[in-house]
Amino acid sequence: MTPWEIKGRELVNCTCEYGCNCQFNALPDKGHCHAVAGIQIDHGFHGDTRLDGLRIAAIFKWPGPIHEGNGEAIAFVDENANAAQRDALLKIMTGQDTAPFATMFAVYASTVIKMHDPVFTKIDLELDVDGRKGRVFVKDYIDAVGEPIRNKVTGAEARAQIVLPQGFEYAVAEIGSATSKTTGPVQVAMKDTYGQFARLHLNNNGVVRV
User: Fold this and answer.
1) What is the CA radius of gyration of the chain?
2) Nearest 5°: phi and psi at 34?
3) For 111-133, what is each residue's pLDDT tens digit?
4) Going along 102-171, which residue ranges are E strands?
5) Do 168 and 207 contact (CB within 8 A), yes or no?
6) What does each C-alpha distance from 7 to 50, 169, 188, 201 come to in angstroms?
7) Do the beta carbons of residue 103 and residue 37 sit within 8 Å?
């Protein structure tokens, strides 16, 4: 197993309401799960290959709860990545070189039966975790925007967090509202649903807790 580790930030938008039942081992509130994700890798490596500054994104579509499988997905890798970096990122994203079910990458990959060919392209990412603001834009594929949840009466920003001491993706996530629309082979659309802003620190064995 090739050792790897990444530190970065993410924006995830899914079809659930703001709490996202999946974070609490419950069933998705819409009965299915559609999701868009963008990740900025601030520092990272896979073996001898550095991954600093690269970006990845993905679209997922499950017809039911994630654990029931039958999912469809497409991965996007930063056009700035060289051949070795592309190979490394795809191995991480598809759960290779990872202990069984140790990361969200490995868990999700195990539930996907239709994985489209990866796309190597420009990924525009804006990520402010503490401010709960961000955007994921991949031309011809993804347009996702995240913002703070707002009080329905006053419009004031509301702040909420999810803390998962044993989670496989993050330790703490800031929760916001997000809207996404995708085109291409995996099409999903969500408006004002669960937006997850988190700092990531992952390796072969899952979340690095320090």
Assistant:
1) 16
2) -120, 140
3) 999 999 999 999 999 999 999 99
4) 112-115, 119-121, 124-128, 133-138, 142-147, 149-150, 157-158, 160-163
5) yes
6) 12, 12, 28, 4
7) no
Residue-wise pLDDT for 26-61, tens only, equals 999 999 999 999 999 999 999 999 999 999 999 999
What's the token pair of residue 160? 């909420």
State how far the alpha carbon of 72 is from the alpha carbons of 84, 111, 181, 189, in Å.
Answer: 26, 9, 16, 15
Query: How many helices (H) and strands (E) in the chain?
Result: 2, 16
Determine the 3-state secondary structure of 143 from DSSP: strand
Q: Is-above-0.70 flag for pTM?
A: yes
Distance, in Å, from the CA atom of 60 to the CA atom of 35, rounded to the nearest integer, reads: 5
